[in-house]
Specification:
By secondary structure, this protein is of the alpha+beta class. It has seven helices and seven strands. It is elongated and about 70 Å long.
């Protein structure tokens, strides 16, 4: 498929590395799940136990059923379905209030941190390489959480370099400019593009600060793994 998706060939090593890491991680999870199954396999397996195997260890209900049949045990699949439904409803409730783009609200501090997220992505690309892509974000008035594609833990030097680049852009008090353009697709969809001088340019729904100088100071509070091939940064404005 590299003729259709040329990025696959460009990111060959990255793709293979992450598939291997994911496979190893899944194998370890399955091993732990089998141990957990043995703990609950003393009689009929409850819906809660079956759901715990699914949620915590990635066991689909079919796998739990097969393992139970080998021991001539029953699984409360109706109970499992009820637990799954409750979990899905809670997940929907938790995400219902989120603003498009991962913003908790449209208050002034949240706008500033949203703008900081754009500066952060641009800085990460300058330090770690242009292949860095945003994988998710969650922004409140207190902090921003930003997920991005990268395999390795960032060094202290890299984090400092990213911080310095963002703070330099803030000190320059650059204007944040919004332009409406037509997305290059068969749908001709209109999108908003936010530009911060020649430092950052991203399609985004907004809202943002008017100028970078409003942000004050940028600080990375934590950098950690989010999932295989994805890192997570938590940052604040001072």
């Amino acid at each position: 498929y590299k003729d259709v998706y040329p990025e696959l060939d460009k990111k060959r090593e990255f793709v293979i590395k992450n598939i291997v890491e994911e496979e190893e991680k899944f194998s370890r999870t399955i091993e732990r799940g089998l141990k957990e199954f043995e703990k609950v396999a003393g009689g009929k397996i409850s819906g809660m136990d079956a759901f715990n195997l699914y949620q915590s260890y990635g066991f689909p209900i079919e796998m739990t059923r097969e393992l139970a049949e080998e021991k001539e045990l029953e699984v409360d699949e109706n109970g499992f379905g009820e637990e799954l439904k409750k979990h899905q409803e809670l997940s929907r409730t938790a995400s219902a209030g989120e603003f498009k783009g991962g913003l908790a609200d449209v208050g002034e501090e949240t706008k500033k941190l949203h703008t900081a997220a754009h500066l952060l992505l641009a800085a990460l690309r300058k330090v770690l390489g242009e292949g860095v892509e945003q994988k998710g974000s969650n922004i409140t008035a207190e902090r921003l959480r930003f997920d991005f594609s990268y395999s390795d833990k960032m060094t202290d030097e890299q984090k400092k370099e990213v911080e310095d680049l963002v703070n330099e852009a803030i000190k320059k008090d650059l204007p944040v400019v919004c332009e409406v353009g037509v997305f290059e697709s068969k749908y001709g969809e209109k999108v908003r593009v936010y530009s911060i001088s020649d430092f950052s340019k991203e399609i985004c729904g907004g809202p943002h600060a008017g100028r970078t100088g409003e942000l004050g100071g940028f600080k990375i509070a934590k950098e950690q793994s989010s999932s295989a091939g994805v890192r997570r940064i938590k940052a604040v404005l001072k």
